Amino acid sequence: MSELSVHKSSGKSKGFIKWLKSSKGQRATVVVTFMFIPLVLLFVFTYLPFGKMVEFSFFNMKYIGKREFVGLRNYIDVFQRDDCFKALKLSFYYMGASFVQLALALYFATLLSFKVKGGGLFKGMLFFPYLICGIAVGFIFKFFYTRGFVLDSLLGFLGFDLEKLPYWLKDMRINNISLAAASVWRYMGQNMVLFIGAIMSVDSEMYEAAALDGANYWQKFRYIILPSIKTIVVLNLILSITGSLSAFEPPYVITGGNFGTGTYFVIMDRIAHQNMKVGLASAMAVILLIIILFATLLQKMFFRYVFNDGNEDSSKKIAKKMAKEAK
Amino acid sequence: MKKLQYTILILIKYASLLFGSFLSIIPVVVCAITAFKTEEEYSRTNVMTLPENWGYIGNFKIAWEKANMGKAFINSLIIMIVVLAGAIMIGTMLAYVLNRFQFRGNRLIRNLFLVATLLPGIAMQVTVYQIMYSLNLINTMVGYMILMMGTDVISIYIFLQFFENIPVSLDESAIIDGASYFGVFFKILLPLLKPAIITVAILKGVSTYNEYYMANLYLQSKDKLVTVATSLYKFTGPMGNQYNYICAGVIITLLPALIVFIICQKQIYSGLTQGAVKG
């Protein structure tokens, strides 16, 4: 390292540039060797499967054996079968849940960004569900929702009549809400940690200045916290909408998609890996991918339109608004 | 008046935090309670009643044997070591090239990785399965490990961000000293990347440890190729109602994650935040 520092001063000399030109070959070698493996992996496990998916969607086929070209038959089937496209309506449950989830995350993140006794402990407890293995989550919630077990006992303490409580995972009127709640339980903490990170990146002088001006909690939230974490909230909003279209884990691990809880991807997984109708499953995947890409694009445009004013310089705006409020 | 308002706000704050945390941990806590109950006690008492003897570990023994967890932990350990080493090498090398070298296609490659995050993994497995099949990689640890290495964009972003904060002059002066690009990368930059590597190792480690969907799909012979996550599948079917065993199994599998979480809380939080900013 000592040698290094000696030469640092002469680093920008002409010799270096000359040497650089002669070493073009070496640069190319590094670029190619270092990128070869990642690019092969990206191609083989992402873009090749994507291409194959489009191809397969036009065939009637299994993983093994002969295949038969059927044109658009699979696509028509996706829309005509009762279990395929209609499963997308379950997404509304998960969309609703993700709004609740983001609101809760924002609420707890705001509380925990200020001084709280035992803040680290609260944060840890709210976040930990995110680190539990999906299968374990499945068992935990099967247990949690079983008749007469955890949830029923808790509600019993509160004075609810056990006889009048529904079967949380079997009753078709409520089971999708139970599953969506499990999803909120699992992912709220992760959103919260992201929001806390964003709130912490705000200059603490802003809060001090606000306190001097006599701003209350709501004003601090509305004019300092919210503008500073707008980007990440919007990002999570976008992710939650596309995420609810592709909801998979809660029904897959808790009910296995039975009792009318099979979301689009759970059905697709069943059609592909149990019924071996690879063509139909591919068509389902392609259709949802198109919807997701389209939704992402639309949302980006929408939010750009809504938020196009003062992205960068929000601090000045806040100062102005605070001044106005103070008057 | 103002003081009263303030007290009420404080009250609401702590009440909601307590309530939220309670809901967060109660499903797991009840599971832990049940894991310590004997068969007879489990069928006799309400799930919320505390066990009579916290020293009873019979359920853990049975769960450990039934789910073949000894084997599962060994397999998971091997998978984690190989996948972490591979993913870190791949991620740092790619980030080095993308950050330090300007060449045609640099932007395109960044975008290819970015778009890949938009494609939901579950949907891709329909055809990845076929590719794995034709490569003879189904039911092999190697195949599963390669798959796990190749599908991580978040760590690449964490490394890319970190490289941006390492001055290029460091590379340049080393090269004047006669070091090759390989030397610069392995001897100078890689050691400097240590904090980022630790962050990625923790995040990727937890997600690899918990991964169950692809493990279930590609490691089908469950007696030999069981992982900690898929070992829990043993409890579906005939054993589906014996929650005293199941809960013991669940607690065993989440214990390592809990320990890592307690030790590395800060890194996990900051890693998550770093990975999300650019996403």
> What would the CATH topology of the largest domain in chain B be?
MetI-like fold
What do the pLDDT scores of chain A average to? 83
Number of strands of chain B: 0
Structural class of chain A: mainly alpha
Short description:
Chain A has 327 residues and is mainly alpha-helical.
Can you describe what's shown?
Chain A is mainly alpha-helical and about 325 residues long. Chain A folds into two domains: about 15-80, no CATH class; about 80-325, MetI-like (MetI-like fold, Orthogonal Bundle). Chain A is built from 16 helices and two strands. In chain A, helix 4 (about 75-80) packs across helix 15 and helix 9 (about 175-200) crosses helix 13 (about 250-255). Chain B is mainly α and about 280 residues long. Chain B contains 14 helices and no strands. The longest helix of chain B has about 35 residues, at about 245-275. Chain B starts with a helix and ends with a helix. The model of chain B has no long low-confidence stretch (mean pLDDT about 90). At the A-B interface, helix 1, helix 2, helix 3, helix 5 and helix 6 of A face helix 1, helix 4, helix 5, helix 6 and helix 7 of B. Chain A: InterPro entries: ABC_transporter_permease, MetI-like, MetI-like_sf.
